[in-house]
């Protein structure tokens, strides 16, 4: 793996003041073993050769960078390009990371895999790679998310995963993550926890970022081939933040000339229920790392809300917090209704039904492109496909 000029995290796993390891004593050895093994793998050309071969032959990479001409014309202004992560095997970017971590688990001799999932895409990706490598798979999923993402629950079970409902708290992603960590604490030796985003204790935020950075690497090469220049703006949705950091990381050295924009879930609005941690959150510790978290005045974690299960998380990856503080990435938000409208617009102009998560970034891309000139370009990371969301879409949008 080539060295990157951006140096975070430091040796202790901190991105500035964020990140680190805030974990119970039971997991200290696991964390140390994982960090040591990943550092070895990071320098192992054979590891990356196998990873990249599987990305090509199994996942279907490179994914296209698509010039959305109809959407661009309808919007007016800049040319809009879509990075088509929805065309990955399993339908989202999540497979990039699940595959890398499964290879690492196999390298460490771990046979029992656990994972958390919200929208279900990470759960499906984890179940997929566990089937590929003959690993036992347990996926924790909030009961509320199981209802609104029933097709993905069925996919996980078909792939051989044990999907365990989480009934406490808000019964969404936060609670599924907490339950997965409890499992890991109780079964530390034989278990490998495949975390689905750039959250959690070190080295997870760094590790997941590295596996997802293939998105930005491909995108930079593709946009230069297609336009001969770097884009003016790049946008991606942000929940935990894996698809966004995967897109942004390769472009961080160019961040002074390219505007990088993360789009959070404003839910019902910034004064109502939402999941806009970077916009409204305060620094605290959640799931093993220091990050910006939605909290009340007493420091208790507030309930998060988004129409998209994958963005319905009250915190955000520590690297995003650091990049916001450095001014290298700008963060904004889109409401449930804005995301639904953008999803409809994309479907009717380009014949692409995107995930509700991705629709938040599509909304930003449409509104921003309209304020730009025809010689400018904006790239939107289309992180996943929308078939998993059809029940929600049918409930929220009149289709007659």
From TrEMBL:
EC class: lyase
Residue spans crossing the bilayer: none
Gene3D superfamilies: 3.40.50.1100
GO function term, MF aspect, one: tryptophan synthase activity
GO cellular component terms, A-Z: cytoplasm
Cofactor(s) this protein requires: pyridoxal 5'-phosphate
Catalytic activity: (1S,2R)-1-C-(indol-3-yl)glycerol 3-phosphate + L-serine = D-glyceraldehyde 3-phosphate + L-tryptophan + H2O
N6-(pyridoxal phosphate)lysine carried by residues: 94
Domain of life where this protein originates: Bacteria
Residue span, Tryptophan synthase beta chain-like PALP domain: 60-384
SUPFAM superfamilies: Tryptophan synthase beta subunit-like PLP-dependent enzymes
Pathway named in the protein's UniProt entry: Amino-acid biosynthesis; L-tryptophan biosynthesis; L-tryptophan from chorismate: step 5/5
Pfam families: PALP
Assigned EC number: 4.2.1.20
N-terminal signal peptide: none
Subunit structure: Tetramer of two alpha and two beta chains.
Role description: The beta subunit is responsible for the synthesis of L-tryptophan from indole and L-serine.
Matching NCBIfam families: trpB (TIGR00263)
Similarity comment text for this entry: Belongs to the TrpB family.
Protein name per UniProt: Tryptophan synthase beta chain
Phylogenetic placement of the source organism: Bacteria, Pseudomonadati, Chlorobiota, Chlorobiia, Chlorobiales
Primary gene name: trpB
């Amino acid at each position: 793996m080539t060295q990157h000029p951006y140096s975070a995290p430091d040796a202790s796993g901190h991105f500035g003041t964020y990140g680190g390891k805030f974990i119970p004593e039971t997991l200290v050895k696991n964390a140390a073993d994982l960090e040591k093994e990943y550092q070895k793998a990071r320098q192992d050309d054979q590891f990356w050769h196998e990873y990249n071969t599987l990305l090509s032959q199994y996942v279907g990479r490179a994914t296209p960078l698509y010039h959305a001409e109809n959407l661009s014309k309808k919007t007016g202004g800049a040319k809009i390009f879509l990075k088509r992560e929805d065309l990955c095997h399993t339908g989202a970017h999540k497979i990039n990371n699940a595959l890398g971590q499964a290879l690492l688990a196999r390298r460490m001799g771990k046979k029992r895999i656990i994972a958390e999932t919200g929208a279900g895409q990470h759960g499906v990706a984890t179940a997929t790679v566990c089937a590929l490598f003959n690993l036992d798979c347990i996926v924790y999923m909030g009961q509320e998310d199981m209802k609104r993402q029933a097709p993905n629950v069925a996919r996980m079970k078909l792939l051989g995963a044990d999907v365990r409902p989480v009934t406490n708290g808000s019964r969404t992603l936060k609670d599924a993550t907490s339950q997965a960590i409890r499992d890991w604490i109780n079964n530390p030796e034989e278990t490998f926890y495949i975390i689905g985003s750039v959250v959690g204790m070190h080295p997870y935020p760094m590790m997941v970022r590295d596996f997802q950075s293939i998105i930005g690497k491909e995108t930079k090469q593709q946009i230069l081939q297609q336009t001969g220049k770097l884009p003016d703006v790049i946008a991606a949705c942000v929940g935990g933040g894996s698809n966004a950091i995967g897109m942004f990381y390769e472009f961080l050295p160019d961040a002074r000339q390219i505007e990088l924009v993360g789009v959070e879930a404003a839910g019902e609005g910034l004064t109502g229920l939402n999941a806009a941690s970077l916009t409204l959150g305060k620094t605290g510790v959640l799931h093993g790392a220091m990050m910006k978290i939605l909290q009340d005045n007493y420091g208790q974690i507030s309930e998060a809300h988004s129409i998209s299960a994958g963005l319905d998380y009250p915190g955000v990856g520590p690297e995003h917090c650091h990049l916001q503080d450095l001014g290298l990435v700008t963060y904004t938000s889109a409401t449930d209704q804005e995301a639904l409208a953008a999803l409809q617009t994309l479907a009717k102009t380009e014949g692409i039904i995107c995930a509700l998560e991705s629709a938040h970034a599509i909304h930003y891309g449409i509104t921003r492109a309209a304020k730009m000139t025809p010689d400018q370009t904006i790239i939107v990371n289309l992180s996943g496909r929308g078939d998993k969301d059809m029940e929600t879409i049918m409930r929220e949008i009149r289709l007659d």
